[in-house]
Amino acid sequence: LPNQRNRKKTKPARAMEIIRNKLRDIELRYRELEGLLSDPEVVSRQGVYQKYAKEHSDLTQLVELIRQDEKLQAHIADTRDLLQETDEEIRAMAKEEMPRLQQELAELESKITILLLPKDPNDEKNVFLEIRAGTGGDEAGLFVGDLFRMYARYAESQGWRVEVVSSSPAGGVGGFKEIIAQIDGHGAYSRLKYESGTHRVQRVPVTEAQGRIHTSAVTVAIMPEAEDVDVTIDPSDLRIDVYRSTGHGGQSVNTTDSAVRITHLPTGLVVTCQDEKSQLKNKVKAMKVLRARLLDAMVQKQNAQQAQDRKSQVGSGDRSERIRTYNFPQGRITDHRINLTRYDLENFINGNIGSVIDALAAHHQAELLNKQG
Question: pTM for the whole thing?
Answer without folding.
Answer: 0.65
